[in-house]
Specification:
Blueprint (H helix, E strand, L loop, with lengths): L9 H13 L7 H5 L6 E7 L11 H15 L3 E5 L3 H11 L3 E4 L14 E4 L3 E10 L19 E9 L6 E8 L5 H16 L7 E6 L8 H8 L2 E3 H4 L2 E2 L20 E6 L3 E7 L15 E6 L2
Parallel strand pairs: 1-2, 7-8, 10-12
Antiparallel strand pairs: 1-13, 2-4, 3-4, 5-6, 6-7, 8-11, 9-11, 12-13
Length: about 300
């Protein structure tokens, strides 16, 4: 485990430490786990919209709908964007005792937005994690050298899949800049470079709000050029397409899909869909979550 001082959740540290101790014992349960090897890994990317107190669409109003959506979906891993510390604690509470998360604020620790990765501890055990910033100085917390409106970052975790005979994978989660195309392009290039430094034998899942539509943008082309595959395009089955940023307005069929789940080649996408869960017209966020059901290969 690297850079443990940056994680903002005590339980996250506890889980990583416990995993390091317990992983050698995984073999004792492999016979049972092998029966579940064909159970897909359920992945979600979700821009939560930070926990504003302003009405309408305050976090107080949105949280019950968010709870319903997440409990109904029950993903094994969720790459979140914009969540602030207390909001992430709320999500952890609402998801229940089998979930944990790893993340840190992009500038000011617990007082700023995180790229937190939530995970179901019954399915995934973290082995290693780290953060880097999308800048010329990626190890400098809060650095922003490409003219972005905000500091942007990546949180990544290497997991052991407890139901796939110990298969490991990387999950990388990000949120590219909303204002600067140059910062987005440089950020995509840095992400592609960092992925090349991962263990090439392990699959990679990338979740994020990329702030540009899939297809026809250099950000998308850069990431796919690095060997990633868009699960939406690759999926054996897809749900109806909607623009994933709706700003609490009526949904747009076949609108811009700016929230993506990408994987390395060899991962099978069984299904991909946009989750349109709402209650009495209230959406849990100004984005729709994107989901994918995957086999790691």
């Amino acid at each position: 485990m690297r850079d443990s001082t940056r994680v903002t959740r005590r339980a996250g540290l506890r889980t990583v430490a416990a995993a390091a101790i317990a992983l050698p014992l995984v073999g004792s349960v492999r016979a049972a786990a092998s029966r579940h090897e064909d159970t897909p890994l359920e992945v979600m990317t979700f821009n939560l919209r930070f926990a504003s107190t302003s009405e309408p669409n305050s976090w107080r109003v949105r949280r019950p709908v968010m709870r319903t959506l997440l409990r109904r979906a029950a993903p094994h891993v969720i790459g979140t964007q914009e969540g602030v510390y207390q909001q992430l604690r709320d999500l952890a509470s609402d998801l229940g005792p089998h979930y944990d998360w790893i993340g840190t604020g992009r500038v000011r620790g617990s007082h700023d937005e995180s790229m937190a990765v939530f995970f179901d501890t019954r399915r995934l055990a973290p082995v290693e994690y780290d953060h880097f910033w999308l800048s010329d100085t990626p190890e400098a917390i809060g650095s922003n050298t490409w003219g972005g409106a905000h500091a942007r970052m990546v949180t990544w975790v290497r997991f052991r899949d407890l139901r796939a005979d110990g298969q490991q994978l990387y999950v990388l989660n990000t949120h590219l800049d909303n204002a600067s195309a140059y910062a987005r392009r440089r950020g995509a290039a840095l992400i592609a470079e960092r992925i090349k430094g991962f263990d090439r034998s392990l699959p990679v899942v990338v979740t994020g709000d990329f702030n540009v539509p899939a297809h026809g943008d250099q950000v998308y082309d850069t990431l796919l050029g690095a060997g990633l595959v868009d699960t939406w395009d690759a999926a054996e089955e897809r749900g109806p397409a909607y623009g994933t940023f709706h700003a609490y307005k009526p949904l747009t069929p076949d609108g811009h899909r700016i929230d993506w789940i990408l994987t390395t080649r060899g991962v099978t996408a069984h299904r991909a869909w946009v989750d349109t869960c709402s209650r009495d017209g209230q959406f849990p966020s100004d984005h729709l979550p994107v989901r994918a059901s995957l086999s790691l290969g």
